[in-house]
From TrEMBL:
Single GO MF descriptor: kinesin binding
InterPro entries: TPR-like_helical_dom_sf, TPR_2, TPR_rpt
Classification via Gene3D superfamilies: Tetratricopeptide repeat domain
Tagged with keyword Repeat: yes
Organism: Danionella cerebrum
PANTHER family: INTRAFLAGELLAR TRANSPORT PROTEIN 88 HOMOLOG
Positions of TPR repeats: 219-252, 422-455, 456-489, 527-560, 561-594, 595-628
GO CC annotations, alphabetized: centriole; ciliary basal body; ciliary base; non-motile cilium
Pfam family, one: TPR_2
Protein name (record): Intraflagellar transport protein 88 homolog
Keyword Repeat attached: yes
Ranges of compositional bias, category Basic and acidic residues: 663-682
Length: 795
């Protein structure tokens, strides 16, 4: 009755009476004020299952979990798996249904069905592709090739099987594409094996199987085909491939290869057209990329990619211009001019000046220094970068011509145009270096290093400057840094070895041997380095190692007199005189005007017991040098021992020669005495005391008859001044040949007048082992031009 609404009699009938009346249970506007509902939302109170005798709420909600007639009904329309709203009597709690027993076994696959066979075959193909790739990564090309071939065969079988079963529409396109890519890999392997015919075959097979939808892949395969044809010498076929690529998708590398092919067949006109196509190839940079908005940060990867693409394009264009310039016109100068004009009208206009500089360098390589200088002087009024590069090259040219004044002038001009040009600073330092102002030269080299820390020429010359100034530790530090950068530089290793053995402050022969051993690994045929190693081992008393390196040095350069002399003395010292003969005969061929080598040949014959051959050799020496006393003495002795009739003639000649020598020596002594007497009389007559300048220097007066022949190994030895030849390190092998005839067999060497003054040692400066800094500095003076000349090339 409380829900019945009685309308008063005085009110009129309302047509919409009762439409706004509803059960308060569904009143959602009062839910915020319903404490029970709010508590259920905030906690798990609302998720608790109600009791069986649940009653309605105070607001009149009907009961949803009441038990009627002993039967329970679900609380909601959706029933949870394994659970009920009430627990039935006599049943255990088993939400997972384990009481029902184990699940029935899975149905076994029938591998005999066509679909299963296809899936198994696809898996095998994928496995073979993976194995082929792994084998190629390990470097096992043969295994990779075999796996790739097997994958190709199985893939073809797979396609046929699908066609037979009528499932051709379900072909695995990814798998097919992978197998086709595998053919490209197979072609690459054949290319590495230099089996070019099969490489072309597999490239073409891959090309036929790849559709036009993959145009990028087709272009790459065509590029590879053209490269293979170049290796095969089939330039016409290569041109066909490259021309197709340039018409479809032009690239810098393809254009360069096309120019190479035209150059190989000597087609001038097509070379010009190909060069024009090359400089018109776009770099692949969109216009939007050139003008990046200010609020956009350019990533380092994009910038590096852009820089590398541009540098690569400029490299190919410069190389192509240098290649075709001498071939497209009657002279290379006209060819360079044509290339410069073409480049000026292209997107690579900044390369025109570089081509002009390369034109000057080409003149330089042709030893046309005048044209090179004139070409470079044209840049004196250009912009600073080009002017600096041209002035740097001019400075270098004048330095090579030893015109140090002009070299200094142009180095100053290069520095004024670009103070941060390391090559200009190096050239300036070199001009100061030759004036022996090493401190100032070192400052220029340091400045070059501050501008470019990777400038190896500046670091090398800085080390030389420190070496000349005697700052050995700093020089050693420079060359060690340089060795860390240039691991295989022979010059750096030589300097390190030189610093280890040349100065008393850093003298370390073992370290020198180690550096020279590293040097021989880089230049194994350097006879001077091998001879120096032999000298170091000889100083240490290791004759076996010394002989090995001296012999190797002789094998590479059999004209080194010092090496020949050491080897001959070594065989005499080891009582193998007959083996020493070949070395002294070699020395006779090199220095035919010096009688000492012929005397040593005769002495070796005599010591080995071949007296007849020794007599013939002495006679031949007497015929060439009739006034040689040693030869006549041995002729007299051998003729006497052998009972020859010529003994009296030789004895008469010997007395005559000795008498002439005594007369000559008396004249020399009398001339010296009269000269000294005249100076003393002049000094006494002048009434002044003699000064040290007026007094002649004291010299040991040794008569020629008392002089014994004692040739010393000048190059690489210390002439007995160092203690390395004696003491605990072992006695050095004596190279002084005066001990060879014995004390009872005196003979003299030929005088200096008998030596041909016009003879020049073919070796030139040798690698020496001086014991003082002054002597080493003198050695460096000999090598100064060579050491600097290799390092002054402009960058």
């Amino acid at each position: 009755m409380e829900n019945i609404h009685l309308v008063p009699e005085e009110e009129e009938d309302d047509l919409y009476t009762g439409y706004n009346e509803y059960n308060p249970t569904f009143d959602s506007e009062d839910l915020q004020n319903d404490m029970g509902f709010q508590q259920a939302v905030r906690t798990s109170h609302g998720r608790r299952p109600p009791s069986r005798a649940a009653v309605g709420t105070a607001m009149g909600r009907p009961s949803t979990g009441a038990v009627q007639d002993g039967a329970s009904r679900p609380m909601t329309a959706v029933r949870a798996a394994g659970y009920t709203s009430s627990i039935s009597r006599g049943t255990a709690f088993d939400p997972l249904g384990q009481s029902k027993g184990p699940a029935p076994p899975l149905e076994t696959k029938n591998e005999d069905t066509p679909e299963e066979k296809i899936k198994i075959l696809e898996k095998k193909v994928n496995d073979l592709i993976e194995e082929s790739c792994l084998a190629h990564a390990r470097g096992d090309l043969q295994l990779s090739l075999e796996k790739a071939k097997e994958a190709g065969r199985k893939e073809r079988a797979l396609v046929r099987q699908r066609e037979q079963t009528g499932t051709a529409d379900h072909i695995n396109l990814d798998l097919t594409y992978s197998v086709r890519r595998l053919k490209v890999n197979m072609a690459n392997i054949y290319f590495k094996q230099k089996n070019y015919t099969k490489a072309v075959k597999f490239y073409r097979m891959a090309l036929d199987q790849i559709s036009n939808a993959h145009n990028g892949m087709r272009i790459k395969i065509m590029q590879n085909i053209g490269v293979v044809f170049i290796h095969m010498g089939q330039y016409s076929d290569a041109i066909t491939s490259f021309e197709y690529i340039m018409s479809e998708s032009p690239s810098i590398k393809t254009g360069f290869n096309l120019i190479l092919c035209y150059y190989a067949i000597g087609d001038r006109e097509r070379m010009k057209k190909a060069f024009q196509k090359l400089i018109s190839v776009p770099l692949g940079i969109d216009d939007d990329d050139k003008y990046i908005p200010p609020n956009v940060i350019i990533t380092l990867t994009w910038f590096m990619s852009l820089t590398l693409r541009k540098a690569l394009a400029e490299k190919y264009i410069m190389t192509s211009a240098k290649l075709v310039a001498p071939a497209i016109e009657s002279s290379f100068a006209e060819g360079f001019d044509w290339c410069v004009e073409m480049v000026k009208g292209s997107q690579y206009v900044e390369l025109a000046n570089d081509l002009e500089i390369n034109k000057a360098i080409t003149y330089l390589r042709q030893k046309d220094f005048k044209q090179a200088v004139e070409t470079l002087k044209m840049f004196e009024k250009k912009d600073s970068r080009v002017k600096s590069a041209a002035a740097t090259n001019l400075s270098f040219l004048y330095f090579l011509e030893k015109d140090y004044e002009q070299a200094d002038r142009y180095s100053e001009l290069a520095m004024s145009a670009d103070r941060y040009n390391p090559a200009a600073l190096i050239n300036k330092g070199n001009t100061v270096f030759v004036k022996e102002d090493y401190e100032k030269a070192a400052e220029f080299y340091k400045e070059a290093l501050r501008n470019d820390s990777s400038c190896t020429e500046a670091l090398y010359n800085l080390g030389l400057s420190y070496k000349r100034m005697g700052r050995l530790e700093e020089a050693l530090d420079c060359f060690l840094k340089l060795h860390a950068i240039l691991r295989n530089s022979a010059q750096v290793m030589y300097q390190l070895a030189s610093l280890s053995i040349s100065y008393e402050m850093l003298e370390d022969p073992h370290q020198a041997i180690e550096w020279l051993m590293q040097l021989t690994s880089v230049t194994p045929a350097d006879a001077r380095v091998l001879a120096k190693l032999g000298d170091l081992y000889d100083n240490e008393g290791d004759k076996t190692q010394a002989f090995q390196y001296y012999y190797e040095s002789y094998r590479y350069f059999p004209s080194n007199i010092s090496v020949i002399e050491w080897l001959g003395a070594y065989y005499i010292d080891t009582q193998f005189c007959e083996k020493a003969i070949q070395y002294f005969e070699r020395a006779t061929l090199i220095q035919p005007t010096q009688v000492k080598w012929q005397l040593m040949v005769a002495s070796c014959y005599r010591r080995s017991g071949n007296y007849q051959k020794a007599l013939e050799t002495y006679k031949e020496i007497h015929r060439k040098f009739p006034e040689n006393v040693e030869c006549l003495r041995f002729l007299v002795r051998l003729s006497t021992d052998m009972g020859l009739k010529e003994v009296q003639d030789y004895a008469t000649k010997l007395k005559k020669v000795e008498k002439m020598k005594e007369i000559r020596e008396q004249r020399v002594r009398s001339g010296r005495d009269s000269s000294a007497r005249g100076r003393r009389e002049w000094s006494a007559g002048s009434g002044s005391s003699s000064s040290p300048i007026d007094t002649p220097p004291l010299r040991a007066s040794v008569s020629r008859s008392e002089m014994k022949y004692s040739p010393v190994l000048e190059q690489g030895s210390d002439s007995g001044q160092s203690s390395h030849g004696t003491s605990a390190k072992g006695e050095r092998l004596s190279i002084k040949l005066k001990t060879l005839p014995g004390s009872s067999e005196p003979y003299e060497a030929s005088t200096q007048q008998e030596i041909d003054a016009s003879y020049v040692d073919p070796l030139g400066p040798q690698l020496q082992r001086p014991k003082t800094a002054a002597r080493k500095r003198a050695e460096d003076d000999e090598f100064a031009d060579e050491e600097l000349g290799d390092d002054l090339l402009p960058e």
